[in-house]
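Student:
Attend to each token:
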Amino acid sequence: MQGLRSNYSAGLSIIFTRPFVVGDTIRVRGVWGIVEEVRLSHTFLTNEDGEVITIPDKHIVGEIIHNSQADTVLELTVGVAYDSDVDVAISTVRTALSRIEGLSTDRVSQIGIAKFGDSAIEIEARVWVQIRKFHEARFEANYAISGALEKAGIGIPFSQRVVRLVRPRN
């Protein structure tokens, strides 16, 4: 009975405070999806795979809830050779991503140098994507970026290590 009471109390809290509404994309306790229904004792989410995820409301109230409304952020990283023109590389990534369906046009994409790696300058893109097309958009975006960089003559380097053998002294 205590578990039921906890769920109903949590459900009332969710209904009255409205930290999310039907149609929002939420992530809570490592689970994410689109809110399909909020009931007094449970909240129902769906994900891109068509799974229905049932979360008891007592596991939502008091937790950190990530609510990105209808979209979620997709982060992509690609390394380009150090001798590449970085402005051209960033522009190429931006153009390739502009052609991907499912990306949000309401939110601004962020594209730039993420870091200077051992073998490459790492370009990162943060774009907003409809949750129902998250993986589809990720695969399509990576494919488009790869093809666009190749077409622009920008190399994606392999990781490299310099190994030096030292002979022991006699």
